[in-house]
Predict the 3D structure of the following.
Amino acid sequence: MREPSHEPVRSRVAPRPHPPWRPWLWVYILACAWVPQAHAQVQCVPLSCLVPHAGNGCDDVTCCETICQFDPTCCENGWDAHCVTLAHATCQICGASGTGSCYSAHSGASCADAACCATVCSIDPFCCDESWDVLCAILASSMCQGTVLECGDPQAGDCHAPHASTACADATCCEAVCALAPECCQNSWDFICAGIADSICLTGACPVDCSPTAGTHGEGCVSYDASCGQPATVIAPGGALCGTLPVTDGLSDLDVYSVVVSDIDGDGVARVTLTLESAGPAFAALVQDSCSPWGPSPLVVQTELCGPVSAAACVEAGAWVVVVSPGVFPTPDHSQRLCAESQYELSVDVNQICGEPCGIGEPCDVPHAGPGCLDGDCCQAVCAIDPLCCSLAWDTVCVKATVANCSVAPPSYDDCANAAVIGEGTFDLQHLAATLDGPALPPGCTPGGAKNVQRDLWCRVTGVRGTVLISTCGGEEDPTLQLYEGTCASLALVYCAEPIIGQCPSGDAASAIQVSADCSDEFLIRVGFVPGQVGSAVLTVDGIACVSCDADLDASGDVDGTDMAVVLGNWGGQPSGGGDVDADGLIDGADLAAILGAWGPCP
């Protein structure tokens, strides 16, 4: 039997927003712009915009012209410290302090670390030309080596803000984060590390708000029971329950759950994932007997500061018990609780992925819940760097490592000429390595303006009839949609998708295009991705699937007078002219009989 193991999972978090520019600066700029000024045509010298120098202007033409419009003296009397201050605050160039951290996404181009910025933009020019999006921040985290510092070093920076150095100043929080994501103490403290800190490094009162769908631990009228032999509350795989861990007369409460681990694939084992959220140190352990020593437990999840924290292991199928207790495993202890609030939430998931995770499952460039990914070589390379990717989940951190360490090929439908042919149903879009080859879009056709589309994919929808809804329902990301007609060399935009709310089965917002079609129609759809989109995306086509119907000669979905006219018009002629329904080489009464026999809508 495979040796069980348990390791914690990281939390997926959104990047922190970029802070707004200084209000005083805009007042100054607007005032300068309002005053009528006459000056000579801007002449920009090849010297850095971020360093004072005697020459007029600086090396970045856009930055130079912008600053000199606000203050002509920068292009007349030399580029002094005042001009440099304006450049840092307003110019989107590598090294400008106003651009923001290289390790978090922001709407403007470039970032404040000049060397790191240049490295990233040499790989992906979009980061310096358009926007420093999530992929740019991911590249920075992988390609730029920050100063190596230890947890608790006062110079390490705020745990809740991305920065170039490793680690962060709060030793307890830092150690908890690096236990989940070791690269935060090895490479840099990027937006993912800061997001994990936001999730688990809460201090002071941090009551747990249980999920609306979670049940309640069944202690009945007794809210406190330290007995290991208490009746166990059943928790179903995939479910979540809320409980409390109060203290009475100096003794800590203990909660006991029972769970059945099923073996669906017949290998005798299954993967169990425990997730626990609790205010202060607490643990959940999977054991055979709640009153036997807990030390041999094959799976323990330990919260340190709040959580939620997850751990997973492959165990033998059968009946198991989960014990939940305050303290640090295996010793119950309530003394380190962060607040009087004692509520917690526990969830249990079971799946059958216990074999080799590399070479199976989902693509490596898409975050997913299971361990491993489809490209075996890439999977092994990533897991050599971060074993959690093969032991627990292929999350955003694993995708970051994929971008940095694997050659991710664009999907086959990356360009218009190779559009994927799809019909009724749902089509998964692999988009992380996609490129941009579509024409410019009019304003309003994408969120934030057409310039924000970074990548696009192409699909040709065929074989559906009736009222057809083409939407982005079903994915984590909501890409833009456009419908074109014409050839790839001469595309004509017909329609931009509109947002729909409440029409997806999940209730999520999405974009959609609705058209009327018969079976002879096809629609060329462009799927565009704005900066920062890295999650899963799908294209859903809802309509009536066209079924093969030999008598439907014009592919309209109906056998009718038009099809009969084809037979009669070519009566006795060559089959190449159309009308040979039974494919016997003759256009005769048998074909007419086939038309009449199939009259009406195709099945």
Q: What stands out?
A: Residues 1-41 have pLDDT under 50 and may be disordered. The chain has 13 helices and 26 strands. The longest strand covers residues 318-328.
